[in-house]
Amino acid sequence: MAHCGISPTMARFAALLLLPVLIESVFSISFFLPVNSRKCLREEIHKDVLVTGEYDINDESNTKTNLKITDSSGHILYLKEDATKGKFAFTTEDYDMFEVCFESKSPMGSGRVPDQLVNLDMKHGVEAKNYEEIAKVEKLKPLEVELRRLEDLSESIVNDFAYMKRREEEMRDTNESTNTRVLYFSIFSMCCLIGLATWQVFYLRRFFKAKKLIE
């Protein structure tokens, strides 16, 4: 029976390579939200990516905090009024800039209510998937779960590189198109200047002839 395993050296090397990707997939932050104020966080996420999040807001009396997540078009992906603690999840439909906004409201005024502590933990891509649940549903062994995780991570890296390549091609096409337009505009400008100079020469020639300054 064949034995399949990964040497410690290869495992450490793979971990070093994948560490930056894993760090970018996790977004965790804590901050204080003053009463009657609004604070938004923005993050760019690729297309068809699962995004999960968990938030915990320090509860204060006479204070209501709303949580709203929108894309760049203003579409609401998640909305929770009087939010205190909970979770959210959504899947992106396109590469976009997403905005997570916390808004605090209180009739007491800003001087009487202390700031609220907000804890936000967001994950997307591979880190957002619950591989323990997948293992239970598909009855996977621990090694198979790790292989599934590595496969998903590899696919995410390939998609990132494909997106970067596509963006590079789009930028190159834009630069070439811009250069072509600038060239045509320069030629048009030169033709206009030559035409204007020629007209000025003939106009001055007729003027000087009318004044009998030249023959």
Characterise the protein shown here:
- Belongs to the EMP24/GP25L family.
- This protein has 215 residues and is α+β, with helices and mostly antiparallel strands.
- It has a domain at 24-128: Sandwich (Jelly Rolls).
- The protein has 3 helices and 8 strands; from the N terminus they run αββββββββαα.
- The protein has helices spanning 8-24, 131-138, 142-210; strands at 26-33, 38-45, 50-57, 64-70, 76-80, 85-91, 96-105, 116-124.
- Strands 1-8-3-6 form a 4-stranded antiparallel β-sheet. Strands 2-7-4-5 form a 4-stranded antiparallel β-sheet, with no helix packed on it.
- Strand 4 and strand 5 (76-80) form a beta hairpin.
- It is elongated.
Summarize the structure.
The protein is α+β, with helices and mostly antiparallel strands. The protein has 3 helices and 8 strands; from the N terminus they run αββββββββαα. A hairpin with a 5-residue loop joins strand 4 (64-70) and strand 5 (76-80).
The CATH class label of the domain at 24-128 is Mainly Beta
Q: Which structural class best describes the helix and strand composition?
A: alpha+beta
Q: How many strands, which pairing sense, and closed or not: the largest β-sheet?
A: 4 strands, antiparallel
Order of helices and strands: HEEEEEEEEHH
Shape: elongated
Strand content: 25-35%
Helix content: 40-55%
> How does CATH name the architecture of the domain at 24-128?
Sandwich
Which tags fit this structure?
GOLD domain-containing protein; endoplasmic reticulum; alpha+beta; 4-stranded antiparallel sheet; transmembrane; 215 residues; disordered N terminus; elongated; single chain; Jelly Rolls
